[in-house]
Amino acid sequence: MPEKVLDDISHRRFNPLNGSWLLVSPHRTKRPWQGQQEAPSKNQLPEYDPKCYLCPGNQRAQGDANPQYKNTFAFVNDYSAVKEEQQDYSPEIDNEDVSSLLLQAEPVTGRCYVLTFSAKHDTTLADMTAPEILPIIQTWTRIYASHLSPSHPLEAQAAAALKGIPENADSEVSPPKHQLRYMQMFENKGEAMGCSNPHPHCQIWTTSTLPEEPGKELVQMTKYRQQHGRHLLGDYVKLEMDKKERIVWQNDGFLVVCPWWAIWPFEVLVIAKRHVRALVDLTDEERLQFAEAIQEVTRRYDNLFETSFPYSSGIHQAPLDCSEEEAEASWFHMHFYPPLLRSATVRKFLVGYELMAEPQRDITPEQAAARLRDCGGELYRKSL
């Protein structure tokens, strides 16, 4: 165990993955709560909703009709955050001009997808089995591979991976018009995380620039590899498996931990055990193992407070257009950031000190991991 005193005193923890610190205040879990409470999320939805923009056969907001798909279905977002074509913008940089130094902007182009997880409106990842989640991972892999740079260090791996993955005739995916830099796959689950449609789905935003969070991680992982000749997350996997203090679950391919530096109360990190740079590096067996890891995390979340647990999750992997060094420094992992703190109705807010100074948490990652380890077994609502 970490030093026992850390369970009782305020202290800071370092996040080597992005180079930041956070404050941990374990004693604050005893404070009374008289603040805002969320309505517990119960999964009381129909299997098919004729008004849902994502259900099979229904009309979407812009008028296009969905096919009668069976599991996954991907299409370009009707309200994309970025577009492939837009007016050119090339600002001049003048180091003698204060406006040029302080009021900087750069254009961003790209393509945004929506990907449904299931044809069933009332299903979540927690309800699905690993074999049912597998087509999602296969579709993620196909979309990632179709957007890779032709000169990418993983191009050969991508071609080999696609041979073992069935095509999805329902999905509306094609190579981009211009080479893009990064692909961020993410899911917002639940109203508490801003999800506007309860139909099980994720989004995939592909941009011409490298976003801040994966960018900071890539800098840290590259620096670590240059300094130590090893991989940051590779070392971290070995460390956690040796200490066994924050492990929630594991199989042969993936480790699920509440990381030492977690900010959110029940934050989880899913890490490939071997050096996997991106989805296309995974074997058929590892794709199923990844599906098992996702199912274990989401089911344990729901079981923890017996509610349909809200979270934001996202995959970080090698950029779509990158150097050999960037590809080799990358290590495939998936973040889960859930907001619930004490119960189905009390959530964590990043406000005040967190916004003005640095992130802070109450319950320690070790305590969170222990609670999630105890939440295995059948999904609670199957016995209701």
TrEMBL record:
Single GO MF annotation: UDP-glucose:hexose-1-phosphate uridylyltransferase activity
Gene Ontology biological-process annotations: galactose catabolic process via UDP-galactose, Leloir pathway
Keyword terms of this UniProt record: Carbohydrate metabolism, Galactose metabolism, Iron, Metal-binding, Nucleotidyltransferase, Transferase, Zinc
Pfam families on file: GalP_UDP_tr_C, GalP_UDP_transf
Enzyme's top EC category: transferase
Annotated binding of Zn(2+), by residue: 52, 55, 121, 199
Protein name: Galactose-1-phosphate uridylyltransferase
Organism: Rhypophila decipiens
